[in-house]
Amino acid sequence: MMVACLGGRLLFGRGESPIQTDLLAMLPPTERHPMAEMAVDRLAHANGDRMVLLLESTDDEHARAAARLLGKQLGADPAFSSVVAELPDFDLEAMLAPYLAHRFQLLNDQDRASLVRAGFDPAQALAKRLNEPFLAGVGIRLQDDPFGWMQHWLDGAPWTRSPLMPEDDLLTAHRGDLTYVLVMANLHGSSYDDGIQRASLAALERASIAMRQQFPDVTMSRTGAVFYAAAARAGAERDVHLVSVVSTAGIALLLLWAFRSVRPLWVAFLSTAMGVVCALTVTLLVFGQIHLLTLVFGAALLGEAVDYSIQYLCARSHAGATWRPLDGLRQVRPALWLALATSVLGYSLLAAMPFPALRQMACFAVVGMLAACLSVFWLLPALLQGPARRPMSVSLVTLAHHLQRRVVALTSGKRRGVLALILLVVAAPGWWRLGHDDDIHLLVSPPPELQAQESHIRDITGLGNGSQFYLVHGLDEEQVLQREEALAVRLQAMVNQGALESWTGLASMVPSLERQRADHALLKPFFVDTGNLRTTLTGAGLKPGVVDAYLAAWPGTSLRLRDWLTWPIAVPFRDLWLDGGAEGVASIVLPQGATDVALLGAAADGLEGVELVDKPASVSDLFGRYRRLASGWLLAATALVGLVFAWRYRRGAWRVLAPSVLGMGLSLSALGYLGQPLTLFHWMALMLVLGVGANYAVFLREGEPHVRHRPGASFAGVLLSALTAWLSFGLLSLSTLPALQHFGITLLLGIGFTVICVPIATPVTEHDTNA
């Protein structure tokens, strides 16, 4: 593994780290509308390269002072491009001023209903506005909006619904006796870059220590992609170290014990290292980066790639003084080619999955197996010219021979049927207990501590997570805004019912032209007779100059989305608009505080151009579809391997295939007894069990005729191969990645059951049994 890392570093230099920790990069496209994937990526990365920090304390002054100190510390560190703690000076009135030109096109639902209702009295509406003790919301000047229509419309804008309000130049929220202050730090690069992660997290730790020293009563919650990416990377590094170091040490001890010499050890590792280096190099060339799943899986591949070297080393050991490298190569070549073909078949099925991570794993495995096998053909004969100084461990061969005889005895004659019945009775309850689970979090499970902090920040600040949103698409901006307004009617009904806290959408800030024209038409009757309106306004005490300016502003102009997007106040919401070119345009509507996901979906039912996008649910659905298909693929793969064996072994093909089939069946039963629900990754692992089990059966079948002088020697080589694979792949069951845990547990069971059944492939003769 060190050689592999060195090869990758030499090939790709010292640029950005090739390890991909972005979860979205591991997932396939799943949405029906092509712009939905664009929206998912937009929301995931819009705020992905920043830290969101929430400070809390029962002491208002301490919370604010701590936020200022933290902002100052982070702002002075080069790891961050900008830090927002104390808000810059801004004039909210100036930011809202562009709306004034469109004030006669902007009405909220209540004012619209009042104007439609018979008997509306403008003088009464004016008096109500003038007698309000405090102007609500952002405070539009009275002379610019004497009837309060624009003020009422602005009160419903998304920026007025946030629990965070500017206090003493800090974004502050209050709940009970606690004060919360928000600090945001933008990274100086991608959250998924290893160097950026280390620098920013170290800077945050230093700033946190300084803050806690002065304000020990202030606690901090944190969220951001950088924390999840760093946790995923740390988990992967732990897994790689565990799998590579432990499996390497274990395999080394096994080879030393089996061959009682250091030379076979380094030759086997050299061949395996070549396979891993080639796999890493080709994977990086093809994909540009390597996923966490591939990285850890590649470390475990060591145990299977060494199988080819082991078979060659076994042939050398058993040949004794008569050893000739090319004769040994001719002896093992048919078995290695056949084993390679079955392994490539099993791994290639992974490439049929739509998941980028699984395709990458397939590429890594196929290239690694092929390179390791070819190195045996081209490298090992040159390195192992002389005969082995010592034969294979007698205790290993004796153990293998004893186990082989026992299995053959139990599977011969009438005992075979009895054993089959016993196995069926024992396995059936396990099969009956099998369930399934397609949760997306089986791919990568974020640390619970980070999830809890993110949930806490979302609860206090009202910031959504973007995993569920509405995509509203159409041919042009007008059609999109009209469709969003139709959705807003249903969302408001959910708010009224308590099923939703609020939502954020562009139509609440830029109504459709159709809506604006309708609102303008409602106000037009009052401006037809400007004399009456002037009398009403001056009678209420407004100065003539103010009245003249207000009347001169009529009829105003319509507000267009493309113009609004250029305004400063639109900056936080620009990511909600998508321009898909030939695909049309779309907006994103973010629901917040939903209590029933089914109601969210129902709100979009029957609305043209509106759909609820739930990326986790859609990926889980895809997991489920492919899990259901995987059983059929496994049957097809088994049949294909059976045809290859039939071509090679004729009537004896069933014996070579039986160990894999039994291994898979018993593994499924064991998973049922263990209470493990089946996932797509269990089925993928079973496909690998098919390939690995077929390898072992082929090794035994092909190797047995060459070692009749030493009964059990061929099966000893199979046991040694199985132990190395069992050690490497079994360690995946300890991985922090749930998907690899399922791989590891299934392969641990599958390899164990299969190797026990392998003697079925070539029963020993009566002479050998009595030996």
From TrEMBL:
Keyword Cell membrane on entry: yes
Major localization listed first in the record, in broad terms: membrane
Subcellular location: Cell membrane
UniProt superkingdom: Bacteria
Transmembrane segments: 240-259, 266-287, 293-314, 335-355, 361-384, 417-434, 630-649, 656-674, 680-700, 712-734, 740-761
InterPro entries: MMPL_dom, Mycobact_MmpL
Alphabetical UniProt keywords: Cell membrane, Membrane, Transmembrane, Transmembrane helix
Residue ranges of every copy of the Membrane transport protein MMPL domain listed in the record: 136-390
The keyword Transmembrane is annotated on this UniProt entry: yes
PANTHER family: MEMBRANE PROTEIN MJ1562-RELATED (PTHR33406), MEMBRANE PROTEIN YDFJ (PTHR33406:SF13)
The protein's name: Membrane transport protein MMPL domain-containing protein
Species in which this protein is naturally found: Dyella soli
